Amino acid sequence: MVSQPDPPSSLAAIRGTSSLVSRPSARSKRYNRSQVGGTNSYLPQNEFPVFSHSGDVEILIRAGPVENRYLLHRHTLTRCSGFFEASTSSEWSRAQPLLPSGHELSKIGEDGNASAADGDSELGGATPTKKWRYELDSGSGDNDIPMLVQRDEPRDDGRSLGSSLFGPGPKTSSQSRSHHKSSSYPSKRDYSRSVMSLGQQPQTLSQADEDLLRDYDNLFRTFYNYPPVLDSINVADAYVQCKSLLTLADQYDALPVIGPRVDHHLLQFQSRLWKQIAKYPISYLRLGYLARSKVIFQEALIHVVGQWPAGERSLRATMPDIVLDIIEDKVDELEETVSRVEGRLFRLNLTTSRGERVSPNNGYLDWLATSLFRQWIADNTTPQPPPEFRRPGSRDTNRPAAPLPSAPPAPPLTAVGRAYRTLGSGNPNTFLGHDECKKFLKLTPEFYSRENLRRFEKRMDELKAMARSVVRPLMNSGLELDLSGSSRVADSIGYLTCTEVGNRDLPWTVDE
């Protein structure tokens, strides 16, 4: 007797017992194995991004002609995102009850939360009793930020409660049969819609849409402990992608989960990352703050403090007050250190053979060398004087007298840092070299001679050696970037990088 295919209504029962039924016909065995469920090759897969059996949160991400569909777990989403924790709560939830089968109702608790949907479904052994549905709403205006919003499950009539978990509404009998024929690859088909396959439609998918799909895919991948798909070759492209992902995570209150992944990915670039931070410290300071990356935040903060007040306006517009307070505190600490070093530099002096401090009376030539050295320090650590103001009694008596200038402002740390780096360099000929000393001595013809020039240069070298020892604390570097290298980035850094940033200086709590 030849076996006949059973109707779809009894298909589930046959799947549970088909492995126990045997037939002598090879054709019958092949039929049972491929159509009834002798193996699980035709069963819907229960894996990311579509958990067909246990998923209870359906998310649709549409961008241009492409739609990515996810069927995930409320338990996972609420642990990773404050947005999902709030929107699936009893106060805001718009979940729809589901039927475990077509013949009986699910049992839902009095609080409206089904136990299977709250975490048991993720184990794969329980069927969810409620379902949440989200769709990406792009908004009505050009400046609106796309946001996931809850939608009701599409319904044609009351029978929609018995619809499939991953289907939006009732299906016809022909659709049910076609589903079983194609159920061997729904997971692969949905997964192929990920951003990695978007290259097949470059003519219809804009770069903005591609970035949007990539960001959401990386967001959900990270929730399920999959590595995000980010550029691992070009550090500049990786920064753009990481920044976009962090912005999305901030939007859905998921930074504690996404931040460590971004931090881990960027730190793999090592020296290339340090050079990029040196070029764009403000951008990386914000990224490090969002990702709670201790290393990136510290590296960028040292650059920002050393160049202060450069970029102050941009920082005040984009960074929170707690970060600005840290920057200002570190700037104050650096200025205090510089002030102490500057005072010691101006007190440097040469001595005579009897141990007396040189003066015009006991060593005029040595005193000239000290004066020239101090003048160089003053010129390179003090801002240019303001333009001359008109005084009362000048020829233009009709104009009101200009107010007297106040005390000159402190020089920017960038200019000061360049001067101290020159003083601390190992090459004494970088400033006040032979030509400058010769030109200075010629201003007093009676003192200019080859012997006096040699003595003058020797005494100047003694002052430079003492200055090098004084400025040594300012030459320290807290950067990961190797300043002793010969790269263009390292050579271009003329500001001070001796700022120390500890765990207590971070704008978040760090476990010791």
TrEMBL record:
Residues in coiled coil: none
Region listing for Disordered, in residue ranges: 1-45, 101-204, 380-415
Compositionally biased spans, kind Polar residues: 33-44, 194-204
Compositionally biased tracts (Pro residues): 402-412
Basic and acidic residues bias spans: 150-159, 388-398
Name this protein carries in UniProt: Uncharacterized protein
